[in-house]
Specification:
Blueprint: H1 6-10, E1 15-22, H2 28-31, E2 39-44, E3 50-54, H3 57-66, E4 70-73
Parallel strand pairs: 1-4
Antiparallel strand pairs: 1-2, 2-3
Length: 75
């Protein structure tokens, strides 16, 4: 089943991916900066490079849109 879906046509170079990150998986210097949180959100480009870490999902989407990027949620 190789049917082209219009959704994939809409995904372009300005798409970024937002996903939750467990704080315990982060380097110590970052964990020290997010005391009291068990999970934060990462914004990644299409190549998987982490662009930002933020406190919550809402802020991640806001940050992406403010930079003219199209955020997509990743589980």
């Amino acid at each position: 089943m190789n049917t082209k879906h219009p959704l994939f046509d809409a995904i372009g170079e300005n798409t970024v991916y937002v996903r939750p990150v467990d704080v315990i998986e982060l380097p110590e210097e970052i964990r020290e900066q997010v005391e009291g949180l068990d999970q934060i959100y990462a914004v990644h480009d299409a190549d998987g490079q982490r662009l930002a870490l933020v406190k919550d999902r809402k802020l991640a989407f806001f940050l992406a849109r403010q930079n003219e990027l199209a955020p997509v949620n990743v589980h």
